Amino acid sequence: MDNVQNNYPRLPRIGELAPEFEAPTTHGVIRLSDFRGTWLILFSHPADFTPVCTTEFMAFAEIHPKLREMNCELMGLSIDSVYSHISWVRNIEEKTGVKIQFPVIADLGFEVATKYGMIMPGESKTETSRCVFVIDDKGVLRSMIYYPLTTGRNTDEILRLIQALQTHEKHKVATPANWRPGDKVIVPPPATQDAAEERMADASLEKIDWYFSKKSL
Amino acid sequence: MACTKADGSLTQMAKDLLLALQNPVPLHTLCPTLQVPLYRIRSSVRELQSLGFVKEVDDGNQYVATPLGLEHARK
């Protein structure tokens, strides 16, 4: 067994409180608990001043206004200094006109990266992989996405994910594959025989079968 | 430190925040006034509190600028 694998703590788990931290960022020292009351997308990138990461920052900046309308904030992270972060976001604005308005954690001590399992030693022992953690307004981890160093993420999907999670929160429904706002949602399946009978008799729903029903919101 | 400049003086955002805290208020009420997200207000208030410029009242439900904080905000 590779000893390196034994030195890395378990990944955080969906449905549990996201691990608390306090970290230096480009917006000063921030705690995770500072975001209570808003949703948060905490995401990591391998390194500043690298091309794929730059495209991702620009893409995150593009969805940032829409996220804010949804009471959702963004925060990035890499194992670079705050000075590197500042220099890089200024460079992005200078070269592309895109202003980065979310904080970026300078995790030189690997503290947050370790708590969140952002290091994939098979890829790199010194850079975080492309991880995304969706944390709700109560501090609970709701979803995780892990992408390799080689492949930029799809921010449309991340935005869709927030829309789907918030739709679940508001309406207590599930969302089917490839769901978009406006599409029908899935009604939670009945958990008893009586409920299944009632479900089949419910004419207001689109039913494939007793366990598979959709409705419009 | 996000609230202080290299020469030790307060940033404009810190001054605006202190002036908005002349009377005790819950922090979330400052967001529309200051046009700053809540996480940033919380982070900044914590820093200003460490400098003695802000104190919490009502068991942490509200915050208010101290006389020292207001003095620095008006410089």
Question: Can you tell me about this structure?
Answer:
The complex is a heterodimer of chains A (217) and B (75). With 217 residues, chain A is of the alpha+beta class. Chain A has 2 domains: 3-153, 3-Layer(aba) Sandwich (Glutaredoxin), CATH 3.40.30; 172-217, Antioxidant, Horf6, Chain A, domain2 (Antioxidant, Horf6, Chain A, domain 2). Helix content of chain A is 32%, strand content 22%. Chain A has helices at residues 3-6, 51-69, 82-96, 111-115, 155-171, 193-201, and strands at 22-25, 28-31, 39-44, 72-78, 104-106, 130-135, 141-147, 185-187, 206-209, 212-215. In chain A, strands 5-4-3-6-7 form a 5-stranded mixed sheet, with helices on one face. Chain A has a 3-stranded antiparallel sheet with strand order 8-10-9, with no helix packed on it. In chain A, strands 1-2 form a two-stranded antiparallel sheet. In chain A, a hairpin with a 5-residue loop joins strand 6 (130-135) and strand 7. In chain A, helix 2 packs parallel to helix 5 (155-171). Chain A is elongated, with a radius of gyration of 20 Å. Residues 1-5 of chain A have low confidence and may be disordered. Chain B has 75 residues and is mainly α. Chain B has one domain (12-73): Winged helix-like DNA-binding domain superfamily/Winged helix DNA-binding domain (Arc Repressor Mutant, subunit A, Orthogonal Bundle), CATH 1.10.10. Chain B has 4 helices and 2 strands. Chain B has a two-stranded antiparallel ribbon with strand order 1-2. In chain B, helix 1 crosses helix 4. The longest helix of chain B is centred in the middle third of the chain and has 13 residues, at 38-50. Classes of the chains: A alpha+beta (217), B mainly alpha (75).
